[in-house]
Design a protein that fits this description.
Elements (H helix, E strand, L loop, with lengths): L4 E3 L7 E8 L1 H7 L6 E12 L4 E15 L6 E16 L4 E2 L3 E4 L4 E3 L1 H10 L14 H16 L3 H10 L4
Parallel strand pairs: 5-7
Antiparallel strand pairs: 1-8, 2-3, 3-4, 4-5, 6-7
Length: 167
C-alpha cells in the first residue's frame, strides 16, 4: 500500500503522473466488503497549484467482482471513473473529502481515495443480465415468477375493470 503514498514535497516537476494495477490483494488490504476481487488500472496525475497546494486527478478503468443482488452469485462489473482532489501541506493530517491536508511531511495516502473512486463508479444495483443468474435463489425466483403469471387473484379482477373499463 506504500505505492499509493505521494510525497508532495518531493515533486520536482510541475506535473507528475503515476499508474498502478489494482488487484485482489488491494481490496483485501483496504477491507472492502462489497468488492472482493478485481483488476483495475489507476492513473494518477498530480500538479502544483501554489507553493503548498496541489490538485490530484485519479482515473480508473477495469472490472471488479461484486455479488448479484438477485441471485447472490458473483458477477463481473465494469468500472470507470475520475475523481479530482485538492491537497495542501499543513500542520496536521485531515481529510474533508474534498481537501486533503497533510502534516509538515507532505505525504498523502491515496489508497482509500482510489477505493472510493472504484466503489462510487459502481451502479447502485448489481444484477446479472437477463438469463445469466444462477444458483438456488435464481431457481426460486424463476419458479415464483412462473407461478405468478399462471395464477390470477379474482379479487383484483374488479379493480382491473376500473382502470381498463370494457368498451
Amino acid at each position: 500500500m506504500n505505492d499509493f503514498r505521494i510525497d508532495l514535497k518531493a515533486l520536482t516537476d510541475d506535473e507528475e503522473r503515476r499508474s498502478w494495477e489494482v488487484d485482489d490483494s488491494f481490496f483485501a488490504t483496504v477491507g472492502s466488503r462489497d468488492i472482493e476481487r478485481g483488476s483495475v488500472r489507476v492513473d494518477m496525475r498530480v500538479w502544483r497549484v501554489t507553493e503548498s497546494e496541489y490538485e490530484l486527478e485519479v482515473e480508473i478503468e477495469g472490472e471488479v467482482e461484486v455479488t448479484c443482488d438477485r441471485c447472490l452469485q458473483p458477477m463481473t462489473q465494469p468500472v470507470s471513473g475520475r475523481e479530482t482532489l485538492r491537497a495542501r501541506i499543513g500542520l496536521a493530517d485531515s481529510d474533508s473529502g474534498e481537501l486533503i491536508t497533510t502534516g509538515p511531511d507532505g505525504v498523502v495516502d491515496l489508497a482509500w481515495h482510489v477505493y472510493e473512486t472504484i466503489a462510487l463508479s459502481l451502479p447502485l444495483r448489481h444484477v446479472h443480465a437477463d438469463g445469466e443468474c444462477s444458483g438456488e435463489t435464481a431457481r426460486l425466483l424463476d419458479q415464483y415468477e412462473a407461478n405468478q403469471s399462471q395464477e390470477s387473484d379474482h379479487r383484483w379482477d374488479a379493480l382491473k375493470e376500473i382502470t381498463n373499463p370494457p368498451r
